Amino acid sequence: MLTLALFPGVGLLAQAVPARPTVKQVKADMKRVADWQIGHFADEFRIRRGKKPPRGLGDWTNGALYVGMVKWAEIAGDDAYYGWLKKLSERQQWKLPQRVYHADDHCVGQLYLELYRKYGEAHMIAPTQAQLDRIMAATPTRDLKWKHVVSQDRWSWCDALFMAPPLWAKMSAVADDPKYRDWMFHEFQATTDYLFDKEEQLYFRDSRFFDQRHDGNKVFWARGNGWVFGGLALILPEIPKPSEQYDYFVGIYKQMAEKLVSIQTPEGYWPMSLLEADAYPTPETSGTGFNCFGLAWGINNGVLDRATYEPAVLKAWSALTRCITEEGMLGYVQPIGAAPGQAWPDKTEVYGAGAFLAAGAELVHLLEK
């Protein structure tokens, strides 16, 4: 079994709540990670050439990176980051990937809507809006039991709640039309009714995990729940309040926040299997990043009590920054998967950087208050 002792730079001992970093320090770390990721962005295409089909610019992995990168662009004081994102979107012709219903292929649309909010050019969102209209006109009705390809026309896995629902919520806000939000709300409820464990206040990744146990523990994947929790922090700003929908989403959000803080490790991470810290001692930064982002958002927006939840944010951010290499790469990102696994100090993925940048942006807002 891997242990923290194998990983230089990551402390074994429990970390006391660290002092608040300065805004300057947070932005400096964000810039290092953002610049490294942009500089190495083409690597993911080269690495997979000859082994797997190269990822497209609209792949869900990149879509998650863009979520964080656009938040960094908002506070960086340098429009070059917006320029980079705009250029990538133009190469995509502002279109979603080919799978009409698949949530993973909707994630990149969140970037298009944020760029539309900045630039106001209608062609940036027209293809996405047309595809959402097409989906609503022929909504899939199959059940949510995990059957891999045939079950992915609906949100039958918890990751999907990050990929697609924020896009629908943003489209409602941008188009000033509740039909997108209402459709999303119905589907989100169906997925939550199916995958949310009310006892543990966490989401199963998909139906295959309902009866799985490891040493008697239910298996709740850290990044999977990070996808949901981070997704809620993207959805809630787009929902009118007071409203039934806002109350619903904030209710789930608060349950998850309470649970997540209670199981954060003393080192500041969340273990890859959330109820099994002893079995998964290796740091993991993608789930931790999304949880840090979600908690900081709640404090900033008056949903969570600052005195109660800020220590968890500060510990998580400190843990994340300890995993940045000298060159600026965020390490310990669990590879693509659907269950708890392994992570390494010299391995990264673009979605890990996206989570880190989203967390950093919310921490900057928290520190500025």
Automatic annotation (TrEMBL):
<keyword id="KW-0378">Hydrolase</keyword>
<dbReference type="GO" id="GO:0016787">
    <property type="term" value="F:hydrolase activity"/>
</dbReference>
<dbReference type="InterPro" id="IPR012341">
    <property type="entry name" value="6hp_glycosidase-like_sf"/>
</dbReference>
<dbReference type="GO" id="GO:0005975">
    <property type="term" value="P:carbohydrate metabolic process"/>
</dbReference>
<protein>
    <submittedName>
        <fullName>Unsaturated rhamnogalacturonyl hydrolase YteR</fullName>
    </submittedName>
</protein>
<dbReference type="Pfam" id="PF07470">
    <property type="entry name" value="Glyco_hydro_88"/>
</dbReference>
<dbReference type="InterPro" id="IPR052043">
    <property type="entry name" value="PolySaccharide_Degr_Enz"/>
</dbReference>
<dbReference type="InterPro" id="IPR008928">
    <property type="entry name" value="6-hairpin_glycosidase_sf"/>
</dbReference>
<dbReference type="InterPro" id="IPR010905">
    <property type="entry name" value="Glyco_hydro_88"/>
</dbReference>
